[in-house]
Amino acid sequence: ARPGAPVELRAEVEMGICEDICVPVSVSLRADPPRDAPDPLIEAALARLPVPADLQPACRIREIEDGMRVTALLPETGRAAGDEVALELRGSDVWVSAPELRDEGGRMAVEADFVAASGKPFPLDPDDLRLTLIGARDAIELQGCAEVQG
Questions:
Q1: In angstroms, what CA-CA distances link 136 with 30, 81, 100?
Q2: Which residues pair with 27 in a beta bridge?
Q3: CA distance 150 to 148
Q4: Residues 6+ apart with CB under 8 A from 26
Q5: For residue 82, which of 32, 34, 106, 145 sits 20 to 30 Å off, Cα-Cα?
Q6: C-alpha distances out from residue 76 to 25, 56, 146, 149, Å
């Protein structure tokens, strides 16, 4: 190819998908040369990136047999009850269960289990929690939580 000419990228990826047994999988990937204008699908996705919010939910953090359980009371944000919620732990390779939503005294709470590779309770810093509320049109991100006892 001549310098500055568009390049088409192609890749063949082979991997194993494993649970009880491994199954080989092959995937073909292709990236077309860049267009003169940004891709509208990518532009729309970038417009929906979570916006940091200056809210911090109250949370309870307690030990469970194989890790830690976090229950966070969702702050009043005026968002719809059908929104999705994600909980993460910044800077770690800790597995997080699917969050469960429930009513707790008239306020919505989200609860998830955090399990480290050790399979044991571990120190969990509430400042490292990230809670993302994902709505139909946008998303907000809350960093950290204020730990309460009980």
A1: 30, 11, 19
A2: 13
A3: 7
A4: 12, 13, 14
A5: 145
A6: 45, 11, 15, 21
Contact between residue 132 and residue 139 where contact means Cβ atoms under 8 Å apart: yes
Q: Please check whether residue 61 is in contact with residue 149, taking contact to mean a CB–CB distance below 8 angstroms.
A: no
Per-residue pLDDT of the chain (150 residues; tens, 9 = 90+): 567 677 778 999 998 888 778 889 999 998 877 778 888 888 888 887 888 888 889 999 999 999 999 999 987 765 555 578 899 998 778 999 999 988 888 888 999 999 999 999 999 999 999 999 887 777 889 999 999 986
Structure tokens that stand for 65 in this block: 């047999």
Cβ neighbourhood burial of 37 (10 Å; 0-12, 13-18, 19+): exposed
- Reported for 117-126, long-range contacts at CB under 8 A and 24+ positions apart, including other chains, are 117/93, 119/66, 119/67, 120/66, 120/67, 121/63, 121/64, 121/67, 121/68, 122/67, 122/68, 122/94, 124/61, 124/68, 124/70, 124/89, 126/59, 126/61
Do residues 133 and 46 touch, judged by C-beta distance below 8 A?
Answer: no
Q: Rounded to an integer, what distance in angstroms lies between the CA atom of residue 131 and that of residue 27?
A: 33
